[in-house]
Protein backbone atom coordinates (compact mmCIF):
# COMPACT_ATOMS: atom_id res chain seq x y z
CA UNK A 1 0.00 0.00 0.00
CA UNK A 2 1.43 3.39 -0.90
CA UNK A 3 1.19 6.39 1.42
CA UNK A 4 -1.34 8.13 -0.79
CA UNK A 5 -3.73 5.16 -0.69
CA UNK A 6 -3.27 4.15 2.96
CA UNK A 7 -6.39 4.32 5.10
CA UNK A 8 -6.72 4.54 8.88
CA UNK A 9 -8.04 1.42 10.60
CA UNK A 10 -11.63 1.43 11.80
CA UNK A 11 -10.50 2.04 15.40
CA UNK A 12 -9.12 5.41 14.36
CA UNK A 13 -5.77 4.75 16.02
CA UNK A 14 -3.73 3.55 13.03
CA UNK A 15 -2.14 6.39 11.15
CA UNK A 16 0.47 6.95 8.48
CA UNK A 17 3.70 8.57 9.63
CA UNK A 18 6.73 6.91 8.04
CA UNK A 19 8.59 10.15 7.41
CA UNK A 20 7.50 12.02 10.51
CA UNK A 21 10.38 13.06 12.81
CA UNK A 22 11.60 10.18 14.94
CA UNK A 23 12.21 12.35 17.97
CA UNK A 24 8.53 13.08 18.50
CA UNK A 25 6.62 11.18 21.20
CA UNK A 26 2.87 10.55 20.86
CA UNK A 27 0.50 9.50 23.65
CA UNK A 28 -3.26 9.00 23.58
CA UNK A 29 -5.31 9.92 26.65
CA UNK A 30 -8.88 9.04 27.51
CA UNK A 31 -9.62 12.71 28.09
CA UNK A 32 -8.19 16.23 27.93
CA UNK A 33 -7.49 16.63 31.69
CA UNK A 34 -5.17 13.62 31.58
CA UNK A 35 -3.23 15.07 28.66
CA UNK A 36 -2.99 18.47 30.34
CA UNK A 37 -1.77 16.89 33.60
CA UNK A 38 0.95 15.04 31.70
CA UNK A 39 1.93 18.22 29.83
CA UNK A 40 2.28 20.09 33.13
CA UNK A 41 4.60 17.40 34.51
CA UNK A 42 6.62 17.22 31.30
CA UNK A 43 6.99 21.02 31.34
CA UNK A 44 8.95 20.61 34.60
CA UNK A 45 11.65 18.75 32.64
CA UNK A 46 13.84 20.14 29.87
CA UNK A 47 10.92 20.27 27.42
CA UNK A 48 9.89 23.78 26.49
CA UNK A 49 6.21 24.61 25.96
CA UNK A 50 6.93 25.18 22.27
CA UNK A 51 7.88 21.51 21.98
CA UNK A 52 4.48 20.20 23.13
CA UNK A 53 0.94 20.32 21.85
CA UNK A 54 -2.39 18.82 22.82
CA UNK A 55 -4.99 17.84 20.24
CA UNK A 56 -8.39 17.73 21.90
CA UNK A 57 -11.95 18.97 22.02
CA UNK A 58 -15.33 18.32 20.44
CA UNK A 59 -14.20 20.12 17.30
CA UNK A 60 -11.34 17.67 16.95
CA UNK A 61 -8.39 19.02 15.04
CA UNK A 62 -9.93 22.46 14.82
CA UNK A 63 -8.59 22.82 18.38
CA UNK A 64 -4.81 22.58 18.24
CA UNK A 65 -3.47 24.06 21.45
CA UNK A 66 0.27 24.29 21.90
CA UNK A 67 0.73 25.28 25.55
CA UNK A 68 3.42 27.73 24.39
CA UNK A 69 3.93 30.29 21.68
CA UNK A 70 2.29 29.96 18.26
CA UNK A 71 5.70 30.29 16.68
CA UNK A 72 6.92 27.12 18.44
CA UNK A 73 8.58 24.28 16.62
CA UNK A 74 5.67 21.86 16.96
CA UNK A 75 3.18 24.48 15.77
CA UNK A 76 5.28 25.11 12.70
CA UNK A 77 5.67 21.37 12.15
CA UNK A 78 1.92 20.80 12.34
CA UNK A 79 1.20 23.64 9.93
CA UNK A 80 3.81 22.31 7.50
CA UNK A 81 2.64 18.72 7.84
CA UNK A 82 -0.97 19.69 7.23
CA UNK A 83 0.11 20.77 3.78
CA UNK A 84 1.39 17.29 2.97
CA UNK A 85 -1.15 14.92 1.47
CA UNK A 86 -0.03 11.89 3.47
CA UNK A 87 -0.40 13.75 6.75
CA UNK A 88 -4.11 14.14 6.06
CA UNK A 89 -4.52 10.44 6.89
CA UNK A 90 -2.88 11.10 10.24
CA UNK A 91 -5.19 14.02 10.92
CA UNK A 92 -8.28 12.00 10.03
CA UNK A 93 -7.27 9.16 12.36
CA UNK A 94 -6.52 11.58 15.19
CA UNK A 95 -9.79 13.37 14.63
CA UNK A 96 -11.70 10.09 15.01
CA UNK A 97 -10.11 9.46 18.40
CA UNK A 98 -10.41 13.07 19.52
CA UNK A 99 -14.06 13.34 18.49
CA UNK A 100 -14.86 10.54 20.95
CA UNK A 101 -13.44 12.65 23.79
CA UNK A 102 -9.86 11.41 23.70
CA UNK A 103 -6.83 13.73 23.63
CA UNK A 104 -3.47 13.35 21.94
CA UNK A 105 -0.30 14.75 23.50
CA UNK A 106 2.69 15.31 21.21
CA UNK A 107 6.14 16.01 22.68
CA UNK A 108 9.42 16.61 20.89
CA UNK A 109 12.29 15.01 22.84
CA UNK A 110 16.07 15.44 22.69
CA UNK A 111 17.47 11.92 23.12
CA UNK A 112 16.51 8.41 24.24
CA UNK A 113 16.92 9.23 27.94
CA UNK A 114 14.64 12.22 27.56
CA UNK A 115 12.14 10.11 25.61
CA UNK A 116 12.08 7.62 28.48
CA UNK A 117 11.36 10.41 30.94
CA UNK A 118 8.54 11.76 28.77
CA UNK A 119 7.06 8.26 28.37
CA UNK A 120 7.20 7.60 32.12
CA UNK A 121 5.39 10.86 32.90
CA UNK A 122 2.69 10.26 30.29
CA UNK A 123 2.08 6.71 31.54
CA UNK A 124 1.76 7.97 35.13
CA UNK A 125 -0.88 10.44 33.91
CA UNK A 126 -2.79 7.66 32.12
CA UNK A 127 -1.47 8.14 28.60
CA UNK A 128 -1.13 5.26 26.16
CA UNK A 129 1.98 5.63 24.01
CA UNK A 130 1.54 5.24 20.28
CA UNK A 131 4.22 3.05 18.71
CA UNK A 132 5.31 3.08 15.09
CA UNK A 133 4.83 -0.48 13.81
CA UNK A 134 5.33 -0.49 10.05
CA UNK A 135 5.23 1.63 6.93
CA UNK A 136 2.47 4.20 7.27
CA UNK A 137 0.93 2.89 10.46
CA UNK A 138 1.27 3.16 14.19
CA UNK A 139 -0.91 1.53 16.77
CA UNK A 140 -1.84 2.05 20.38
CA UNK A 141 -0.04 -0.21 22.84
CA UNK A 142 -0.43 -0.75 26.58
Q: Give the spatial strand order of the biggest sheet.
A: 3-2-4-1-5-6
Low-confidence runs of at least 5 consecutive residues? 1-19, 60-70, 132-139
CATH architecture verdict: 2-Layer Sandwich
Describe the sheet with the most strands.
Answer: 6 strands, antiparallel
Form type: globular
Polypeptide structure, described:
By secondary structure, this protein is of the alpha+beta class. It has a single domain (11-140), classed as Alpha-Beta Plaits. Helix content is 33%, strand content 20%. The protein has helices spanning 32-42, 73-82, 87-99, 112-124; strands at residues 24-29, 52-55, 64-65, 103-108, 128-134, 137-140. It has a six-stranded antiparallel β-sheet, with helices on both faces. The two termini are 27 Å apart. The model is unreliable at 1-19, 60-70 and 132-139 (pLDDT under 50).
Short précis:
With 142 residues, the chain is α+β, with helices and mostly antiparallel strands.
Mind sketching the topology for me?
Elements: E1 24-29, H1 32-42, E2 52-55, E3 64-65, H2 73-82, H3 87-99, E4 103-108, H4 112-124, E5 128-134, E6 137-140
Antiparallel strand pairs: 1-4, 1-5, 2-3, 2-4, 5-6
Amino acid sequence: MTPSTAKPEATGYAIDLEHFPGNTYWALFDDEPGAKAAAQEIAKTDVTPEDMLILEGPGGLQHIHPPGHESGLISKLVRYAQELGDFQIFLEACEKAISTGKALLVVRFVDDDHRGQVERLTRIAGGKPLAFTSRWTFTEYA
